[in-house]
Amino acid sequence: MSLRKSILCRRISNSVKSVNNHKHGGSGRVVVPTGIGGDVSGELLAESDPVDGWANMLPELLGEIIKRVEESEDRWPQRKNVVACACVCKKWREVTKEMVRSPRNIGKITFPSCLKQPGPRDLPHQCLIKRNKKTSTFYLSLALTPSLMDEGKFLLAARRFRHGAHTEYIISLDADDLSQGSNAYVGKLSSDFLGTNFTIYDSQPPHTGAKPSSSRASRRFASKQISPQVPAGNFEVGHVSYKFNLLKSRGPRRMVCSLKCPLSQENVNGKLIDDSMMKGPESSVSSCTVLRNKAPRWHEHLQCWCLNFHGRVTVASVKNFQLVATVDQSQPGGKGDEDTVLLQFGKVGDDTFTMDYRQPLSAFLAFAICLTSFGTKLACE
């Protein structure tokens, strides 16, 4: 649109508001005669509520605007402008959500629901985990710069609780509200007495028809049901096991993860997933994925076990690990790409750790797996 037409449209809008205020006393609608400005045909209806004007924008124009914003603001903190578009009104929110869910945007973190969607395929999301030993709290943030000391964009928080013979980690979207009854609650991690077997629970069903776990430890509330909209139980989405180590602390840990990972919208057995199956966490599609830690090699000169973390880990620790896939789900019975690291976790400071993940893991699953590395493993070390 030329500058002259833009100024002309603004004058028309101002004229409509002026007539509306003087003749109708704020009634909200006025009919403008045909022919004003030379570009108006029929009757022009002007709404007094500015939000209605944004909601009535042509779908083609609205889609183009949000598409350009989404493409130009692909990283945080600039990506907050995409969130701002979703806050304009209901119509803008629906268009923005559809744009974010499209296959070309897989792996980008925009809304809280993206934390349970698969990460990027090519380059992993680089994150930081900071530990507060006094409060047994862990904070996950998305790294915004290559610096290992970056504050980052806050994503999730977790707190460790001791319940009898087992330990639980409550995971929340709110760093100040870490309880299962909170609206910010997203899931939890539960361990056995030895700290070698963990179960990951999601607050939402991982797929259509999923039933909450019947075990008492998986319940969110003491009563059976609080509200029809709030599930009283949690849903099992993964297990992490640490294998017995004959060398104890002198040898590396061995771990195996069996997970119900969310599938991306790209394909299922080579076919595109119907968009209606990706509307929300209640109807998302998931598949079973088995991961194991990549075996380190013994360095004769340094006299220690070594893994190549490509500069993302700087402090030697038994907690450090890399996970690779054991089976390619697209080819049943075949081996997966064991050279591609899907999740790596390592220490860079006294209470600072790095976490890098990619498909098929989500930020929620990756964070839960890394939490299992904290604490003493009685049967392993």
Automatic annotation (TrEMBL):
Q: Which residues form the Tubby C-terminal domain?
A: 115-376
Q: Which SUPFAM superfamilies match?
A: Tubby C-terminal domain-like
- Which Gene Ontology BP terms does the record give? regulation of DNA-templated transcription
> Where, by residue number, does the polypeptide cross the bilayer?
none
Q: Which domain of life is it from?
A: Eukaryota
The entry sums up its family as follows: Belongs to the TUB family.
| Protein name as annotated | Tubby-like F-box protein
Q: Which organism is it from?
A: Manihot esculenta (Cassava)
